[in-house]
Amino acid sequence: MKRLVAATETVAAVFLLLIALLTAANVTLRDLFAWQIPDWFDGTKLLMGIALFWGIAVATYHGSHIAVDIVWEHLQRRGQRVLDIVAGFITLAFLAPMAWMVFSKVLASGTQATTDLRIPLMWFTAVAACGAAAGAWLALARLWTLVRGDDEADTGGEYGATDGP
Q1: Treating both helix axes as pointing N-terminal to C-terminal, what angle do 40-62 and 77-108 enclose, rounded to 10 degrees?
Q2: Residue 92, domain member (yes or no)
Q3: pLDDT per position as a tens digit, 83-102
Q4: Per the structure, how many domains does the chain have?
Q5: 165 falls within a domain
């Protein structure tokens, strides 16, 4: 499982790096030579979609997404665990159909392509769909570790050493 999580983190980071490099290169070329990279805008949008899906997968597994813990912080350890399990079920209930719909988008993209270079959109949506699927699988893995009760070992031990606030 650690290898899958590490690979997911790496994929998300690589696509963020590609976005930064493509943007920086385009700005430099535009300012110095009055020339821009063909499809740089479409490319960065598509790469951002990929990075977002893979980032959602990482954040879901680690439970590090943006959350308001006003209720969770005031619960005892058992209540926190129950709330985390309920939240895990809800997250999985949203991510699994989303992954299915993104894969449907891959199949429906047909011959759509970028504006300048005519790069097929299918390749970008396929990589994004893999990220959406990774999100659903990692949500299931996190939920499984929460239900089994060994969440401290796998997801960073969010419960701490005490039973309450």
Answers
A1: 150
A2: yes
A3: 999 999 999 999 999 999 99
A4: 1
A5: no
